[in-house]
Structure formats: C-alpha cells, structure tokens
Amino acid sequence: MARRTYRAEIEIDAPASKVWSILVDLDGYPAWNPFTTRMRSTLAIGAPMDMRVRMSRWHLTIAQRETVREVTAPEGERAGRLVWGATMPGVVAERVQTLTPLGPSRCRYLTEDTLEGPLERLVLALFGGSLDDGFAGVAEGLKRRAESR
Fold first, then answer.
1. How confident is the model at residue 63 (pLDDT cuts 50, 70, 90)?
2. Assigned fold of 3-148
3. Is residue 97 classed exposed, middle or buried when 0-12, 13-18 and 19+ CB atoms within 10 A define those classes?
4. Average pLDDT for residues 33-51, to the nearest whole number?
5. Cα separation of 80 and 109, whole Å?
6. What tens digit of pLDDT does each residue of 70-95 get?
7. Which of 30, 67, 70, 31 minimizes the C-alpha distance to 52?
8. DSSP-derived secondary structure for 1-61
9. Hey, how many other C-beta atoms are within 10 angstroms of the C-beta on 103?
10. Pairing relationship of beta strands 36-40 and 60-72 according to DSSP bridges
11. CA gap 54, 63 in Å, rounded
12. What angle do CA 114, 108, 78 make, to 5 degrees?
C-alpha cells in the first residue's frame, strides 16, 4: 500500500510552553499560518477539527474535517503532541505535531502528515508540492510568531 509522510522541522528560540499556546490557539492561525488558514475545534479527543487548507501551487483552498486524536501539552522535558487525522475513501491521513523542549527558552517543532492508501499517489501527483510548501510554511510561520512575541 502506498504511504508518504510530509514533514518539516525547525528549532524555535522560545519556551515550549509559549509555542504550545500558539499551536492550541486555533482562532489565531490566520495570523501566522500560511497553510492552514482556518481552524475550528474544541480540541477534545474525538472532536471534529474543521479547517481550511491552502494548496499554494493550485491557488486553491480546501475545506477538511478531521478528528482530534491526541492533545498533550509539553511539560518539563516531556514533548507535547497535537494529533488529528481522518479516514477517507482511498486514503488515511494523520497529522502529528511534536514540540520538544530543548531547554528553558528553546524548543524543536516537528510536523508530519502521513498519507496511506491506494489514492496516496494521486494526492502526491495533485498536491505533493503544495503539501511540501505548506508544511515548511507552517514551521517558519510558527517560528516567526513565537520569536516575535
């Protein structure tokens, strides 16, 4: 079965707790996130995650509904994780965002989106470049937002 993971990783000069507060402030996404321009959810496990995702190379915005799977804030040296995903006809998607403390005022952000299923190759052909661009933009946007506040 076809499987692909899109990812971006960046170190941020801000405490993990500060970056986490930006990640879970869904209403604030349009101010810093060029890829996910709208987010709506209670962030309760099993709750819907309604979003609008911008496919840059197509100049197209897609509405998506996924389900919240994990919300674990970073604490001390323990990493935090924000996970959502969806099972759609022909493809299963899981988005994992991990925030790892690297000391009191620095952290590492990793975002990965794994797509698996018979339609994964079609998604790659249509949107692969936009997904690569999108995840890089999320990481850079989060870094700018956290370091400027």
1. very high
2. Alpha-D-Glucose-1,6-Bisphosphate; Chain A, domain 4 (3.30.530)
3. buried
4. 97
5. 10
6. 999 999 999 999 999 999 889 999 99
7. 30
8. --EEEEEEEEEESS-HHHHHHHHT-GGGHHHH-SSEEEEE----TT-EEEEEEEEGGGTEE
9. 9
10. unpaired
11. 9
12. 90
- Give the C-alpha distances (Å, rounded to integers) separating 65 from 46, 72, 86, 92, 144: 12, 21, 7, 13, 27
Q: What angle do CA 47, 50, 53 make, to 5 degrees?
A: 145
Give the start-to-end residue ranges of the domains of the chain: 3-148
Q: How far apart are CA 128 and CA 37, in angstroms?
A: 18
- Tokens matching residue 85: 């995903």
* Number of C-beta neighbours around residue 127 at 10 A: 21
End-to-end CA distance of the chain: 44
Token pair, residue 100, equals 């790892």
Tell me how far the alpha carbon of residue 39 is from its chain's centroid: 11
Please check whether residue 86 is in contact with residue 108, taking contact to mean a CB–CB distance below 8 angstroms. no
What residue has token string 């604030």?
Answer: 28
Provide the CA 34 distance to its chain's centre, in angstroms: 11
pTM, two decimal places:
0.93
